[in-house]
């Protein structure tokens, strides 16, 4: 998993807690798991169309294969994060939909849901837009034969990443804490301080397997015919609602957890084995859903 900001595991708490509101979901490994599962489920027609778009794409921010391109939107956003901030400012809000868990609404989290101006490519749309609305916009472009190849390629790469993002519970929720970035945590046996968002982005994924193929195989066991039928219904808005519900009942559920005083004098949460036992199945199912739904979206776009 990865947070909204491009946070690496093991950073000091001071760095983590100062991170901006935008972060990655699932980190590279999580997005690559989603990409692995989705690519396996593409129809021959969709796979041919996707492969053709990626084959002509000369962007060097990631490797050119489907699984690697699932991480591209993070790389693009952060490509000028420490310099001009053009890409960062234009796209960092697109990675999440921070619905407050104590009464927030989708409209509030999506900046009032402004319409994309007529004639404007989705890749050039407003900076203040949420992941729900960007997925809808890019999905429409991908399915439209009139969309220019360059824009269709961008739509594909954003979709491949954003479907993963929306399924990370802390990318679809907030508790006045930047989606968990402001919640200091310790995860025993380590005494290193991190934040809640980073824990969900990376540490839980690491528990699924030592490599992406191993973890993807573990997650794939959840992709039964019954689950596929269940997960294939509902809208993109519904996906955000599901993730928000998981944040309420699991990610922000610190029942029984000990607390500690963090490096800033605030209260942090000790995420013990019981918390991990509650959280890991939720993260695993979210990755499985994302893989199935990404494949469904692409299969529909290229039917």
TrEMBL record:
Keyword Hydrolase: yes
Signal peptide: 1-25
Any one of the GO BP annotations: DNA catabolic process
Entry keywords, A to Z: Disulfide bond, Endonuclease, Glycoprotein, Hydrolase, Metal-binding, Nuclease, Signal
Keyword Signal assigned: yes
GO molecular function terms listed in the Swiss-Prot or TrEMBL record: endonuclease activity; hydrolase activity, acting on ester bonds; metal ion binding; nucleic acid binding
Protein name, entry field: S1/P1 nuclease
Organism: Roseateles saccharophilus (Pseudomonas saccharophila)
